[in-house]
Amino acid sequence: MDFDQMLEAWKAQDDKPLYGVNADLLRLVLRSERDKIRRTLRRDQWITYVVGPAMAAFAAFWLWVTILNRGPALQQVAAAIGAGTFVLWVAVFWVSHRRLALRERGFGNSLKDEVRRNLSLVEYQISNGRWAAAVLWSAPVMIGALLIYWLAFQINTDTSFSWWHHAWIVFAIVWSVAWTAYAGDRQVRRTLQPRRERLRALLDTLNMAA
Amino acid sequence: MTETERDRIFGEWLEAHKAILFKVSRAYGAAHSDSEDLFQEIALQLWHSVDAFRGDAAVTTWIYRVALNTALAWNRKERKHGAGRQDFEAATALLVTPADRDPRLEWIYQRIAELDEVNRSLALLMLDGFSYREMSQILGLGESHVGVKINRIKAALSAQLAKEEHDGL
Asked: Is the pTM of this model over 0.80?
């Protein structure tokens, strides 16, 4: 072999690469997508495990204060609901995460199983989004009860009460809850549902090819 | 750039230039399984790099730059963490090597594997017909320095070829 033949052999390999590209490419894209979803889930997990207990502790503290000060029954009920909801949120998240991990163990290494694994993660994200939205909508009940208590306290003790000031606070709370719920719903509709459909279509194609 | 747009560009690049990824991953992956891992790593980095591509250089130049940088970083990481498993992987690689490989190509990859990191990159670029200027842009070396190194690589390869021709191999 001379130098020119060496170059010829080098160029010829472009027509016959080392591995089957499509399956590899598909696996690569699936793995990359899975890594991305797992990063998001890890972030959500940390937020839930930090914010959930903190909010539950705050609600429990509020319940303790209202009981201690012999506050109205409405506030006591709201505080109890608040604490319970946040504890439930963390518990449901933990259980669902465990179930996801168990489900993942059932998947093998075949291409179809790789797709199924991704599909399972996306479905988990969608159900988590719905659950988080449901929890989020319980927030106005608790916040409303807290505000009633706060307003009553202010009116009874402070003559320089500002309605505008409190109206802004109420507006900010309602807007942030509504916006968070809307953003979550939009992500499900725009990103997660199309991704789920794409994975389902891919699985159907693989099933037909088998 | 939207995610769909990035996926589309990445798909087009991979379809048109996958051979570059194969060559770099084979040149830098010691065993077959290493090559596959490196191929995936390069493809992943290429996917991440789509946003940063501004069209200042040719797409092939960009892909080579990303692929070689990834391979160099990967090699350094492997040297640090992969000691002790190379032999095992080399042994298992023999079981999955396709039988219809061109022996001339095997020879070229063996010679490339014997070079140091920079010369390995230069050899790949030389074989793929890049100019000295393009090579210097991709690797961040001076053009004259590239010229000197390429001449040495060519001379070494030619000498090796002549020796093996003489020995009847």
From this structure: no
